[in-house]
Amino acid sequence: MAGMVKGVVIGGVVGAAAALLLAPKPGRETRQDLMNAYSKSMDKSKEWVSTAGTKTQELASKVGQQASDVIGQTKSALSSAKDGMNGAKDDITGSLQESTKPN
Question: How far is CA 13 from CA 5, 16, 40, 46, 74, in A?
Answer without folding.
Answer: 12, 5, 10, 15, 52
